[in-house]
Amino acid sequence: GVSITDAIVIAMKEAIERRRDAESPLQTAARLREKHGVSLRKAAKKPLPREAFDKMWESE
């Protein structure tokens, strides 16, 4: 049999390996855009000005 400590070590190693093989956030976004037929235009890659974020967080 396997001790509880060994079982935990095995589970942690497997979890780390799965995480290492997982896609990055950029890859996830690209996959979802392709799946739903969304394409990014050049303008979408340009960051918004700081004022846009300031307006989103202004209290009314």
From TrEMBL:
Classification via InterPro entries: VapB-like
Pfam family, one: PSK_trans_fac
Top-level taxonomic group: Bacteria
Protein's recorded name: Transcription factor family protein
Source species of the chain: Brucella grignonensis
